[in-house]
Amino acid sequence: MGKFVINGRRPVSGTHRVPGNKNAALPMIAASLLASAPVTLQEVPDIADVRVMLQLAKKLGCVVRHDRATRSVRISAAKLRSTRIDHLLASRVRTSVLFAGPLLARLGGATIFPPGGDAIGHRRLDTHIDGFRALGAKVKAGRRALRLESKRLAGTRIVLDEASVTATENLMMGASLAEGVTEIYNAACEPHIRNLGEMLCAMGAKISGLGTNLVRIEGVQELGGCEARVVSDTIEAASYLTAAVVTGGQLTLENVEPDDFDVIGRVFRRFGVKWTIDAEKRTLHLPAAQRLKMRYDLGDTIPRISDGPWPMFPSDLISILIVLASQTRGQCLFFEKMFESRLYFVDHLIGMGAKIVQCDPHRVVVSGKSLLRGTTVASPDIRAGIALIIAALCARGTTEILNAESIDRGYERVEERLSALGADIKRVD
């Protein structure tokens, strides 16, 4: 196991190029199995979760070529043969479940195991299974695995019981090769789902309604190969932006998605954070020495920041914003509604000197500005891990963050990239 050792109080400044979106690349790898012709993905992030998904594809019979230098992946599923997802690899990544839709549609069956991933709370599979049953699949539940079978899926109208991102992706992939028309109502509409849908359309799928909560898929007989670009990672971009804000640095982000920052920007402005975006060049510039002060609601009421399905504020940024709030004058209530264990990492921040009251598993009140001090903490998941790095960057003294590998799952060589921006951070194995 590795750890990060960080000496704080050094401005994070310079230029950072935002890599491809983790949450887009993973389902796009799974979608490559829908075609017998090769699929090439560009701007694929070099992170641990991507490597696990590519290993899973190889185990199922795909030929995979991963060129890290050019950030490209070529996947050929012409000899796709197995319908059984590797159990050990599945336990390492949440998105292993996304192979179910392509395998069921292409080979008529899929054996899946409980997926792994971050321990941020219960993440149910019922929405996936109910949707596949509606498409005509038979589901057999074993002691350790689920077996899905269908000669050919049949289009239907599906009303999701929650706007699940992975369920929307899984059903959209399966329905692309189903017979007839499928409508998915209460569909999730995050930008990375649109990215997946555009890739499927480039493969020959007929999909409308992307970016809305009603997606319509007209099934086709087969899908072909394509070349698709993974959109840039707004969560990663916002993480580096926050690191610069709390350390007083100036930052230029390249390869950003301007429309995504329209959504998250309204929340960052609450804290006094200001930036400018050049939509044509797809760059964002953050000036140095931001004056952080909480903007209260009308009537001088403490504001509430809550997460939800897009275009509400992303759950993946809540941990990072809690650190930002600890460095902002004023108080703020955070209401994390989606995962019951997401906020447990605040104990580490309290140990570093943050003024936080945890009301219950879903709500915390943060009072700023706090002087953070270095200590030893452990990263419980990807987003809490990067939040602890950001806290350490603005803390006085030295911080050690254990379980560095959990952060590698979502961030490329974070110690190298932050060091290039002036941070004092190193990895120790």
Please count the helical segments.
14
Number of domain units: 2
The helix content, as a percent range, equals: 25-40%
Strand order of the largest sheet: 21-22-1-23
CA radius of gyration:
22 Å
Strand fraction equals: 15-25%
Structural class of the secondary elements?
A: alpha+beta
Q: What would the principal axes of the Cα set say about the shape?
A: globular
Major pleated sheet = 4 strands, mixed
The CATH homologous superfamily of the largest domain is named Enolpyruvate transferase domain
Main features:
429 residues; 4-stranded mixed β-sheet; 31% helix; single chain; alpha+beta; UDP-n-acetylglucosamine1-carboxyvinyl-transferase, Chain; 2 domains; 23 strands; 14 helices
Summarize the helices and strands and which ones pair or pack.
Elements: E1 3-7, E2 14-17, H1 22-31, E3 39-42, H2 48-59, E4 63-67, E5 72-76, H3 87-90, H4 100-107, E6 109-112, H5 126-134, E7 138-141, E8 146-149, E9 157-159, H6 165-176, E10 181-185, H7 191-202, E11 206-208, E12 214-218, E13 226-229, H8 234-247, E14 251-254, H9 258-268, E15 276-278, E16 283-286, E17 304-306, H10 318-326, E18 330-335, H11 346-351, E19 355-360, E20 363-368, E21 376-378, H12 382-394, E22 398-402, H13 405-408, H14 414-420, E23 424-428
Parallel strand pairs: 2-14, 3-13, 9-10, 17-18, 21-22
Antiparallel strand pairs: 1-22, 1-23, 3-5, 4-5, 6-8, 7-8, 10-12, 11-12, 14-16, 15-16, 18-20, 19-20
Helix pairs in contact: 1-2, 1-7, 4-6, 5-6, 6-7, 8-12, 10-12
